[in-house]
Amino acid sequence: MKAILLVDHGSVKDAANRMIDCVGHLVQSLAGDAAIVRVAHMELAEPTISQGFASCVDAGATEVVVFPYMLSPGKHSTRDIPRMAREAAAPFPHVIVSVTPAFGVHDKLAEVVLERAGVEAHGRAPESCACMRPNGTPERWCGDACRETARNVTVAH
User: Domain segments of the chain: what residues?
Assistant: First the structure.
């Protein structure tokens, strides 16, 4: 059984920490019985990544997909969370674990921005991230989180 472990940064503010619970319930509602959904915080609050991972396994997960609930591919989503996921997975060598990229550049996020700003979408998202590059630069600033290249990155343990 596949589980999704949503991981945010964690906060000293309880209301900020509770938001990931709401997201977890929403994702679980959309997934139905197809996946187990749990939440965790990278730091400052509980459940920790280790506690969240164990909760997934206790619920019957044989595969855990860790999703850094962060916008950009910064050090937490590319280094810290994968390391912490490896550590959390160590007691469960029979469980497959992977870490997804952060949200990154995605047309669904652009739709949310427009909706929150009260602006109706009139165009279409480009087929390629190349169209989203500032000033036509050749660099792919969206990194691994680009919708063109987003993929699970297996965490070896």
Answer: 2-103
